[in-house]
UniProtKB/TrEMBL annotation:
Keywords: Collagen, Membrane, Signal, Transmembrane, Transmembrane helix. Residues 412-534 form the SpaA-like prealbumin fold domain. It comes from the Bacteria. It holds the Pfam family SpaA. InterPro entries: Ig-like_fold, SpaA_PFL_dom_1. This is Collagen-binding protein.
Length: 600
């Protein structure tokens, strides 16, 4: 059985393949009357929807001479009794498709001859596609619409909307048993454009299952994964989605991106492409070592992966050419592209089986790159985008698909001031750690961070190895220069951070300031970049994502901040440390008096 898939433009089994004709000598009987209820189920390709599309089924004929296998569970052979008006249309369609019908015997109609030839190989895949297209044009008549002057009355039109589409996204056409040509029509029934091209999708030649006492029987032979009664419909726009394993990341983090689109039916495709571009803090991968290839979430075999990745062109960008009859490849250091042609997959063996089993399913290509910059602002947000396009064998070109994934990085400022909240204090030393609260069964942990000169963050072995940030050191060189000390604010910009919670610790005060009550506090960056603080006491405040940390020269200044509670806690801790527990009550009772004494 060669070229069985030929029947379909839309990745279904144009069950011409099913036409194992002329085998009436085998034992068996017809399994149903032509009026028996049957159906055809249309499914969208991965990532797309049938919603908003209309489908009309024309019945080409009823099944006849149906022969079941020995145990009656499948059909070995059948023929089609052509419906009234179809023979003349089929004869013209065969001529238009360049099919030689001179070998057709007098008792055989054109439809059965073409179906039989598609199964035997005497009618090529390209010829059968052209036959189905020409037959569809004949069925809709001179006005190129469903209804009107149609020479054959349509069996059913179904609008794909919320009332007809099932929860799984499929659309069911309730019909009677037989062989059909399904066309897609726009509002008003229009099937063809003025230039004769199809206004929407291409025709689907497909049979229902054979009805046998309420059961639908399939053919006894395996036709490359396809089945009677169901078809996968091509999208009018190539569906493509870009995702990442994180919505935000620190500069320096590895991020895994996935481009997801529908795997093309390469028996029905001239050219298919994916083009992936990085910008604002991401670069294209330097090699394919990190690439993975999956279908519906399941990794493909090594040989198929090698075939697919062998078509990846690093440093290249792909797009449909102006005529939309080919793909242009251009140099772009921030991109990679993959172009697949039907010739890339063999017509038999593993590649053909892979294609037949997976056409229309979700193709996922993932790779890992490092985030090198970018923030959460529209103009400079780090992102990766992907485009995909397809040129079908008939020249039909759906709209190109586009997907984009932004991976934000956020920042917050720490302003160091005197107790008045305005006087800048230069040279106070801070460190920052990721504060992990994901495991609620254990206490939160801090992973101290290192910031490199290029702004990339990494994990330190311990707190001692973390980067020390000085208030007012705007160039991060570890010192506050005379020029920096003239600034109106003594700030630290903690930039390039992912959403999450961080511990910020003041380790050393600026010269002339007390090391008592140095704050350690947490900063939480929400997914939208909003900053909140906790555990900072009265010395730490937040306004407009700027955290202000006050320094005191002595404990007397602490009282000016409303920090009596801190004094109490400090005194209690000191008393406990000396073992003088009997003094605790006195310390608490007389805290304000002691604070006054300290000020003196």
């Amino acid at each position: 059985m060669k070229n069985i898939v030929v029947t379909r433009k839309l990745a279904a089994l144009a069950l011409a393949s099913a036409s194992i004709l002329g085998a009436g000598a085998l034992a068996g009987t017809a399994v149903a009357a032509p009026t028996d209820a049957a159906s055809i189920t249309l499914s969208p390709i991965a990532g797309s929807s049938l919603k908003g599309r209309d489908f009309t089924a024309y019945k080409l004929g009823d099944y006849a001479n149906v022969v079941k296998n020995a145990d009656g569970t499948a059909v070995n052979s059948f023929s089609v009794t052509t419906a009234t008006g179809v023979e003349a249309l089929a004869a013209q369609a065969a001529t238009d498709a360049g099919i030689d019908v001179s070998a057709k015997n007098a008792s055989q109609d054109t439809l059965n001859f073409v179906l039989s030839g598609s199964e035997s190989g005497s009618v090529t895949a390209a010829q059968f596609r052209a036959f189905a297209n020409a037959l569809a044009k004949g069925l809709v008549g001179a006005d190129a619409t469903v209804g009107g002057d149609d020479p054959v009355v349509a069996a059913k039109t179904v609008k794909a909307d919320d009332t007809t589409i099932a929860k799984d996204g499929t659309l069911n056409l309730d019909l009677t048993e037989g062989y059909y040509l399904i066309v897609e029509n726009q509002d008003g029934g229009k099937v063809l454009n003025d230039d004769g091209t199809f206004a929407s999708g291409l025709p689907i030649a497909l049979g229902t299952t054979f009805q046998d006492n309420g059961k639908g029987l399939q053919l006894s032979k395996d036709y490359k994964g396809y089945a009677l009664g169901s078809a996968v419909v091509k999208s009018n726009t190539i569906p493509v989605v870009k995702t990442a394993n994180a919505d935000s990341a620190k500069v320096g983090d590895d991020v895994t991106f996935t481009a997801r689109t529908a795997f093309p039916n390469l028996l029905d495709t001239k050219t298919f492409y994916i083009s992936d571009t990085a910008s604002n803090g991401f670069t294209a991968p330097a090699d394919t070592d990190s690439f993975t290839v999956s279908i519906d979430g399941k990794a493909v075999s090594d040989d198929v992966k090698a075939t697919v990745l062998g078509k990846v062109q690093l440093g290249k960008k792909a797009a449909l050419n102006a005529a939309k009859d080919g793909v242009d490849i251009t140099d772009d250091a921030n991109s990679w592209a993959m172009v697949l042609n039907a010739a890339d997959f063999k017509t038999d063996g593993t590649d053909a089986l892979f294609n037949a089993a997976n056409a229309g399913k979700s193709l996922e290509i993932s790779y890992t790159v490092q985030k090198t910059g970018g923030d959460d602002q529209d103009a400079t947000v780090a992102k990766n985008s992907v485009d995909a396009g397809n040129i079908y064998n008939e020249g039909q070109v759906p709209s190109e698909g586009h997907g984009e994934k932004k991976v934000n990085s956020f920042d917050f400022d720490v302003d160091k001031t005197a107790v008045d909240g305005t006087t800048p204090v230069f040279g106070a030393a801070f460190k920052i750690a990721s504060h992990d609260t994901t495991d609620t069964s254990t206490a939160p942990t801090d992973t101290w961070l290192v910031r490199a000169a290029d702004g990339k963050w990494s994990n330190a072995a311990d707190e001692a190895g973390a980067t020390t940030f000085l208030s007012g050191d705007t160039d991060y060189d570890g010192t506050v220069s005379d020029a920096e000390a003239k600034a109106k604010k003594a700030s630290i910009d903690f930039a390039g951070l992912a959403a999450g919670t961080y511990t910020v610790k003041e380790e050393t005060p600026a010269a002339g300031y007390s090391n008592a009550a140095l704050p350690t506090f947490t900063v939480t960056i929400a997914d939208d970049g909003t900053v909140t603080i906790a555990n900072g006491g009265t010395l730490v405040s937040n306004k407009n994502d700027v955290v202000t940390v006050k320094n005191i020269r002595n404990l007397g200044e602490l009282a000016q901040t409303g920090g009596i509670g801190v004094i109490i806690a400090t005194l209690i801790a000191a008393i406990i440390a000396t073992g003088a527990v009997v003094v605790i009550r006195r310390g608490v009772k007389n805290a304000k008096a002691e604070a006054a004494a300290l000020r003196a």
